Amino acid sequence: MMFDGDALKNYLIGEGVSKVGYARVDVDDFPNLNYAIALVLKLPKKAIGALLSDEFKKYWDIFHKELDRLTEISLKAEQLIKDNGYDAFALTMKRNECDMEKLLSKIPYKTLATSSGLGWIGRSALFVCEEYGSAVVLLGILTDMPLESGESITDSFCDDCEECQKACPVGAINPTKWNLRLDRSDIIDIEACSQYVIDQYKLGSGCSKCLSNCKLTQEYYKK
Ligand code: SF4
Ligand code: SF4
User: Fold this and answer.
1) Which pLDDT band holds residue 101 (cuts at 50, 70, 90)?
2) Mean pLDDT of all residues in 51-71
3) Which residue intervals of the chain are DSSP H helices?
4) Is the pLDDT assigned to residue 100 strictly greater than 70?
5) Mean per-residue pLDDT for 107-131?
6) Tally of CA atoms within 13 A in the half-sphere of 97 that contains its CB
7) How far apart are CA 71 and CA 65, in angstroms?
8) Which end of the chain is more exposed for a tag (fewer CB within 10 A), N or C?
9) For ligand 2, which residues put their CB under 6 angstroms from it?
10) Could you tell me the distance, in angstroms and rounded to a whole number, from the CA of residue 223 to the centre of ligand 1?
11) What is the pLDDT of residue 9?
């Protein structure tokens, strides 16, 4: 069977990835890898349940288990692409660890996911998709294997929804909806959010109210 974008997508979906998208990229550190594979893995509903009942340890345990699963799949896919004669580099958290700031700010997973058409950035500044809201784990793979790009999403589909904004305990979420031309600071007061999350963490708690209360996360949870 010919190994092309469809075959790769089928493989990834078969491995359990929830959504797969392709995009063209131009990253200084990887000048020969001009295609990106965006991977979205839905979080199990029990993760949302844990957030709703403020069980943060339980949430992070589930999150990291799912992240490990997606990491393993991305490394297997990297090998599969290489076995088929192309180059590939899975952008795992571990590989980015030493240079997280530098590399991830150049190719954020959220950008890979929006530019391959898998979803958009919510008012919350989190990645959001129709099927699972923000209850997802994201990763990516770079490759030189030619892949047909999805249609890039450059504007928000949040419409009139303001649920995350209403749920934020410190009013960090601005009414402005995301589009690609805006800076993050236009849509969220990241200092106010970070300070609150740090304070909550010191109390043994946390905050992901924008994630758990997202209208689309809730729709997925209740389905
Ligand atoms: S994590 Fe909490 S404080 Fe930060 S934006 Fe979301 S709801 Fe607001
Ligand atoms: S709660 Fe509504 S406005 Fe906020 S990210 Fe989700 S869909 Fe968008």
Assistant:
1) low
2) 97
3) 5-14, 45-52, 56-83, 93-96, 100-106, 109-115, 163-167, 184-187, 190-202, 209-212, 215-222
4) no
5) 96
6) 3
7) 10
8) N
9) 122-124, 128, 133, 158, 161-164, 214-216
10) 24
11) 98
